[in-house]
Amino acid sequence: MGCGTSSASQLETRGLIYIYYGTTTGNSSRLAFQFASEVRNLKFIPKIINLSEYNPKELLSQKLNVFFVSTYGMGSCTADTENFDQWLFSEERNKNEFQGMNYMIFALGSTNHEHYCEFGIRLDKRLEQLGAKRICNMGKGDAANDQTENDYQQWIHNEVQQTLQLQYPLYTCEQGQLDFSIIKIKITKEPENLLSDNLDFMAQKYINSITFSINEIKELKLQPSRGNSTLFLDLFNQNIKYKTAYNIAIYPQNSDSDIDELCNLLKFDKNMRFKIITNQKQPFPNPISIYTYLKKFCDFSGLVSKKQLIELSNMINQKELQDELLHLASFEGRDQYQNRFQNSKENLLNLIKKYQIKTLTLEKIIEICPQIQPRYFTIASSNQKHPQNIHIMASQFILNHERLGLSSSYFRTLKKGDIIRGYIQPSKFILPKNSKAPTLLIGIGAGLAPLRALIQERDYYLENNQFEKCPFQGEMKLYYGCKTEAEFLFKDELKEYLNSGTLSELQVAFSRKDPKQYVTELIAIDQLYQHFQMDGILYICGSIELGRDIQVKIADMFEYFENTDPYLTDQKIRELEENSQILTEYWG
Ligand SMILES: Cc1cc2nc3c(=O)[nH]c(=O)nc-3n(C[C@H](O)[C@H](O)[C@H](O)COP(=O)(O)OP(=O)(O)OC[C@H]3O[C@@H](n4cnc5c(N)ncnc54)[C@H](O)[C@@H]3O)c2cc1C
Ligand SMILES: Cc1cc2nc3c(=O)[nH]c(=O)nc-3n(C[C@H](O)[C@H](O)[C@H](O)COP(=O)(O)O)c2cc1C
């Protein structure tokens, strides 16, 4: 292998590996960190970089780069990757500029979306075009049915580990070089400093986020039950700047009862403060108390990861159980992992309880738990009407019969006057280029959120006698679907919009009323055809299934009115999307 015996100050390594990621909801960063710990075991020196912090010169000089990138919308990258995307695809790039660079890509996406992993595919083609050498086939992680982790493991297992070991033999180097990222903590009496610097990308994003005070919080459903509730939140910030139907990302927090339980099990003093000692960027601000870390930064309630299972197995004395956990964490045990953990929504806290783990240290928790990621919500208000307030409609997400999703349970603890953290970013709902075009709004459940924002936008201009400035001067119709009358959200408000003429038409389909009706049944293909003929815009928000059903309707419309061959209807729909005549936001 070409590496001699190493002295105490020297270590064996395979060299540096740069791991870039671009993410919105945290999946790519989670895998990037997981990959780093896996290649560290192979004796690589990993360096993780968010794509918003890439440095062109440095990137071009790096010999081995791995990219974890996700796709949003029609082949688009994530917001943190946009500058890199522009630089990479710029005409200024020279052919062979990337020569000498080896690369691998793990693309994240969802087969529920039409342009599956499209950004990863584009990136792969472009890197090759510019002279970089692909050393492994691209991996693809499918978020549909939560398959991303399994797909990732398959990628690592089938090709990556072997290729890396074969192509990068061990050699000896000074230890200092290797001492890259193992985290150590130091107990301190220093006060907490939640604004400390030298933070990594995700932690900096948290620090840069803004605070909102809760102006109002209330239930929107008439007969809510656990797992069937939609909260309305009115969030206030005097200096906020947003546009109608943008997205807001909100940082949830762990509950005090879960934190107490974890601290009791592991005998942590939650008031104890600690500092992080690392020569990499800091993963969260510190000095910090154990309580604040667990409350705001440590995601111990998400699906238990395979890395966590391996760590837990080291702390179990029973050999049989140990082997079982290792098997569940292995590539061979992936089906059992899905049955045992994924389907029953098992998390780290439950397993610590179940296996009576007592020796898990804080350092290990920091190493194996990802950072809490913000949850996205589509803003349900118009910035014209509510310049300093943001409305959201948050449906409760139930994980299993007893446990709610993290933000769902966090929201239940909030009351008027509380402060929450988040940030704002554009959504796919843009205002029409042609203000005279008619708009048809279609949504189900909390998918009403961005549609309500658009209705408010039109109402603002009507109310203020400035209709000539209104981006929605054509007719605006709303077709809404919900289960029952009790779940008809904002019923009175919407009826008022109809009475005042802000809405030209309001139709509601109840899927659990007798006779039941789905929202798609409200749409006739001749009406749809006429709508598009008039340059009309379709805004759709709700579940992926709703999107699929409407696509089928539009495909039928093309077949019927334009004799389009069935295999060409997709192309026609794509043209409407590219022309911003079909604007969608699906999150379920
Ligand atoms: C662009 C965008 C806009 C959105 N707009 C809205 C909106 O306006 N209104 C709205 O109500 N929602 C909206 N959502 C959805 C919202 O962001 C949240 O995803 C949703 O509310 C659930 O959040 P949660 O924290 O309660 O659940 P989470 O804790 O995030 O759990 C939900 C997901 O994580 C998995 N998961 C979590 N823990 C485990 C575990 N232990 N084991 C296995 N799996 C686990 C679940 O299977 C599920 O896939 C939007 C999403 C996006 C991307
Ligand atoms: C609003 C939205 C749009 C998406 N669009 C696409 C898409 O066009 N193509 C695709 O393959 N995946 C799409 N996805 C799926 C994400 O790429 C996938 O969930 C991925 O795991 C997210 O990674 P991240 O957490 O690193 O951002 C979309 C997801 C959301 C929420």
Structure notes:
35% of the residues lie in helices and 21% in strands. It has 20 helices and 22 strands. Strands 2, 3, 4, 5, 6 and 7 form a 6-stranded parallel sheet that branches. The radius of gyration is 26 Å and the shape is globular. Residues 23-28, 70-73, 78, 108-110, 113, 115-118, 143, 148, 587 line the site of flavin mononucleotide.
Topology:
Blueprint lengths: L9 E4 L1 E8 L4 H15 L2 E7 L5 H6 L2 E7 L11 H8 L12 E8 L8 H12 L3 E2 L4 E4 L5 H20 L3 E4 H4 L5 E5 L12 H8 L1 E10 L10 E7 L10 E4 L5 H11 L6 E5 L10 E2 H8 L8 H8 L5 H11 L4 H9 L5 H7 L7 H7 L6 E4 L10 E7 L10 H7 L6 E7 L13 E6 L3 H16 L12 E7 L8 H10 L4 E6 L14 H9 L3 E6 L1 H19 L6 H10 L3 E5 L2
Helix pairs in contact: 10-11, 18-19, 19-20
Bound molecules: flavin-adenine dinucleotide and flavin mononucleotide (FMN).
The site of flavin-adenine dinucleotide has 26 residues, from strand 15, strand 16 and helix 15.
Question: Top keywords for this entry?
Answer:
588 residues, alpha/beta, Rossmann fold, NADPH-cytochrome p450 Reductase, Chain A, domain 3, 3 domains, 6-stranded parallel beta sheet, 6-stranded antiparallel beta sheet, 20 helices, binds flavin-adenine dinucleotide, binds flavin mononucleotide, Flavodoxin/NO_synth, flavoprotein
